[in-house]
Amino acid sequence: MAGACAAAVTAGAVVAGTIGAAAQTPAERGAYLVNTVMTCHNCHTPIGPNGPDMARALTGGTPVFDTPAFKVRGSNITPDRQNGIGAWSDADIEKALRHGVRPNGVPLAPPMPTGFYGVLTPADSAAIAAYLRTVRSSPNKVEMPVYKAAIEREAFPGAETPADPATFSDNVKLGEYLVTIAHCMECHTPREKGRLDFSAIGAGRQEFKGPWGVSVSRNISSHPTKGLASWTDAEIKRAITEGVSRDGGKLKPPMGYGFYARMTPADLDAIVAYLRTVPPRE
Ligand code: HEC
Ligand code: HEC
């Protein structure tokens, strides 16, 4: 008996320590999505001297997105009923994610990448809602958003409707899903008069200003010289997870390298497999 028990404990530890997607609860799956590939903290957790201040995780207030059309801040998405989203139903949270509309009907400004989140599978959007209920509640009151023009929501091509998880056995399909929910192409596609230029997906060329100065997103299409075609898989993964370019140069924010670093190796492999299929862009 004692022997069998020890064996069972060991086996359990191995499963818990490795992966076992099948054994994940919805809240665990939601934690994985929120804290790694979907980088929610990049916009919903205040930045401290050493990056996102996880003691104030998801309490909002910064960053501030100030444009001619709106001035908004990352919201408090902890379960506080007054100042967070504790009073929202699961359906309310999923509607905000996938359709960009609050329970009171007011649309969310586009820094919240709902145009990409339309692709979320029903299981994954439910998982995110389940996880958000478990995070530490904070009464932090975020300044009200100001809208100076009508909010236009733009669905990213392919993200209009939920993906079919049955297709995820194909690594490229899984990678496409992950790259979409990670909103990689929101930063890595040039903008024309503020709108993403869908004819140049992956070409980069967007400028980001912040405490780091200025960074310009790079070409991550499969272009032979301007994109990633000649990079090795390991070089691409190092750029995504460590923020180190092919030549060893340090890459700047706002890309959330530290969050992507905690993705599973299988998910990273799928992302690389998909990036290799992105048509070459100049
Ligand atoms: C690139 C920045 C960005 C990312 C990434 C992002 N958000 Fe947001 N989110 C925002 C901003 C900005 C707002 C407020 C928009 C407004 O006020 O119109 C917002 C609003 C929301 C709201 C509505 C809250 C309210 O009180 O109205 C929810 C819910 C939300 N985000 C959840 C998430 C979750 C969950 C993730 C990750 C899966 C995420 N967001 C990722 C920027 C972002
Ligand atoms: C919030 C904007 C943003 C998001 C989201 C984002 N990136 Fe980036 N990425 C950048 C910027 C800006 C740079 C260039 C930084 C610099 O030059 O210092 C960059 C650099 C890179 C590089 C290095 C390319 C080179 O030539 O060195 C790769 C590869 C990359 N990103 C892939 C991705 C992938 C894959 C995703 C999604 C999983 C992603 N990025 C999400 C903004 C973003």
UniProtKB/TrEMBL annotation:
Asked if the keyword Heme belongs to this entry, the reply reads yes
Keywords annotated in UniProt: Heme, Iron, Metal-binding, Signal
Per the UniProt entry, what species is this protein from, by scientific name?
Rhodoplanes roseus
In this entry, which stretches build a coiled coil?
A: none
Q: Which PROSITE patterns match?
A: CYTC
Q: Which residues form the signal peptide?
A: 1-21
Q: Entry's Gene3D superfamilies?
A: Cytochrome c-like domain (1.10.760.10)
What residue stretches are annotated with the Cytochrome c domain? 25-136, 170-279
- The protein's name is Phosphomannomutase
Q: Which domain of life is it from?
A: Bacteria
Q: Does this entry carry the keyword Iron?
A: yes
What lineage, starting at the top, does this entry show? Bacteria, Pseudomonadati, Pseudomonadota, Alphaproteobacteria, Hyphomicrobiales
Which GO molecular function, any one, fits this protein according to its record?
electron transfer activity
